[in-house]
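pasting for ref
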Amino acid sequence: ADVVDFMRRICDSRFSGVLNLSGKALKIVNPEIFQIEGLRVLNMSDNQLTSLPDRFQTMTMLTELAVANNQLTSLPPSLANCESLQTLMINGNQMSSLPAVAGSLPNLSHFEFEQACELLSPPRNIIQSGHQPILEFLASIYDSQRTLGLKLVNMGLTTIPDEVLTLTGLRRLNLDKNLLRSVPPNIGNLWSLEELTVADNLFTDLPPEIANLSALTELDLKGNKIPVIPTALGQLSSLTILSLENDSVVSPPKEIIASGTTVVVDYLRRLFESKVNGVLDLSHLSMWSLPEEV
């Protein structure tokens, strides 16, 4: 009877453009669904699905997808092909992070996302801001996979989302004008990063793992209160642009900072190496006095 009912629903959907398979105790999605031409509405809520097939390339006319109250942990990348999608209901699943692919849907206007488990990403402040900021955040994450650049500016972030720190291919990261107080150690996982700008936050220090960003050429720390620039930056041999909030910096000395990025990095490198070999060479740096940290 269930098979007959399923086939009847499939047959009807070819004419109506609507397929309702909610509450059928489905554990897998029948591939025949993806062969229905002109399907506009697909409802597979209240089942036992743990994943969706990555076969949404053909569903370009889909305007509503409901997969609420299943056991899903993610959505397939091919969902990005459903550019006509206006309604997406993924609530009541097991997603700890909202899928970035939702941010790729240009016509999405109704998005139900509350999960049956704790939602770690987007950050709480963005979720509390409503539908549009959530989709903007997801769109930024999604686009970064193509552009290799991520811009999360003025979003009220208090922590760097864990999801960002997994984007190991990222080359440009802009976190300006947030409420960030610390950089987590796993920032060092972003080894492809070439530009990092964290201006106008609340940083007072940087972790030693910043030295792992060996490809970094530009680092913007303006608008923070970092009194001592960590010697770990001396390991960044590719760094050519270092922007600091000079008034709040105690070390390096102001005359070193005024001499430019190359001299600052050289100074920090010498301090860093002195901790290893016990020898500190500060010759030819045009310093006015012996630095306090020495």
